[in-house]
Amino acid sequence: MPRNRENCLRESSGRRHRRSRTSRAELIFAVSLVEQHLREISRAWRLSDMVPIFLAAILESLTRRLLELAGNEAQRRGTERRITPELLDLAVYSNMELSDVFQFITISQVAPAHR
After folding, report:
1. In a 3-state reduction of DSSP, which class is residue 10?
2. Which positions, given as ranges, span the membrane (predicted)?
């Protein structure tokens, strides 16, 4: 049974409970911060309400994938207990799609040897 808006917004005490766009989209990255940064760097006066949500989801997905690959590399090495900038660099440049996305990005504290 689909939940209607009134039931979602009511607490047990009867007051309305507002949910953030981040929690409604089931994201970790804050949609409001993404929107704020978009408005700061963009000259677009009008943005769809969905743009910051989609962008936050894309950023979260890229971050999740990058950390997963770096964690796998750390596990494969066996000696690493944390994800280092070198592991992030290895994860980026060992994956073809991420390598294209991060082509012009420099990861701090890593010598650009893979390029």
Report:
1. strand
2. none
The yes/no answer on whether domain 5-101 falls in CATH 1.10.10.10 is no
The CA angle 39-28-34, to the nearest 5 degrees, is: 5
Pull the structure tokens for residue 98: 């991420």
Model confidence pLDDT, tens digit, residues 50-70: 999 999 999 999 999 999 999
* Distance in angstroms (rounded) separating the CA atoms of residues 91 and 87: 6
Q: How many CB atoms lie within 10 A of CB 1?
A: 3
All residues at 6 or more sequence positions from 86 whose CB lies less than 8 Å from its CB, including other chains: 109, 110
Residue 106 has a CB neighbour count (10 Å cut-off) of 11
The reported pTM is 0.75
pLDDT of 5 > 80? The answer is no
